[in-house]
Amino acid sequence: MDLKTRRVAAIHDISGFGRSSMTTAIAVLSSMGMQVLPFPTAVLSSHTGIEGYTFRDLTPDFDAYIRHWKSLNIRFDAIYSGFLGSSEQTAFVSRFIDEFKDENTVVLVDPVMGDGGKCYKTCTKELCSGMRKLAKKADIITPNLTEAGILVGGHNPSKLPGCESDLSGWLDELSDLGPEKIVITGMDFLYGKIGVACRNTISGVTDIFYNDSVDGYFPGTGDLFASVFLGSYLDGLGMTKSAEKAADFVKKSAALTVRSGENPIEGVQFEKLLFELIG
Ligand code: PXL
User: Fold this and answer.
1) Model pLDDT for residues 104-115, shown as the tens digit of each residue
2) What percent of the chain has pLDDT over 70?
3) What pLDDT score was predicted for residue 155?
4) If I label 105, which of 5, 94, 174, 216 is the partner at 20 to 30 A Cα–Cα?
5) Ligand 1: residues whose CB is within 6 Å?
6) Who's near 96: CB < 8 A, 6+ residues apart?
7) All domains of the chain, ordered by start, with CATH?
């Protein structure tokens, strides 16, 4: 066993109802033996897909939070950002990266902005342009197909690649944003299948794989994917193997949710499967 515990700065919101973002990142990465240091961006009573949610924006705390951590001389093996509520928050995350990234820190930016061909309510033009800037500072970005569209189209998710041959141009455009590795999830080009594309922008190599899809809409699976991906990547699995492990875990969690009859709006049931990540 590697006795050194890897430390991850998790920059996400905390949503009370509906498994997502910070609660998922802590559960998954802790199960994988990583220490998670939460940097909460907002507190919501539920994720934004559920009517009536409360939203407490924590941006006013960011500066003092960063300064305190800086005074403690904390070093991170990874900086992992997800849902952000405004372009002001993206600018703070950018500053966080400048303050804490060293040559061994992996920066993963999950540009949470939309799904199913639509932007989330909170995704403004300004937020999109902030995410594009953040992607420049990332080692790895993990957009779903819609978020790839929002990043490339500058806030217009309506034009999405419809097949693998369209995808290559999109990956080139995302490469131009600056990340070293791009992992696009949720590729629904083939009936009954859901695919992932992994592009190494240095070598230009792209790996694509598919799993059987599970019918239904499952919020929070992007957070689950990115968290399992990051834990696996920090364990040394490499981009494509980490993506395969993450996609497999998401698929099993979605299948369990369907079998259980639980409402998928609560997110997928992954708790009973976490033991599979330990080791
Ligand atoms: O799962 C992504 C996500 C994270 N955080 C909040 C969200 C969503 C998606 O809807 O609303 C608050």
Assistant:
1) 999 999 999 999
2) 100
3) 78
4) 174
5) 13, 15, 20-21, 44, 47-49, 83, 112, 120, 219-220, 222-223
6) 9, 11, 39, 66, 79
7) 7-277 (3.40.1190.20)
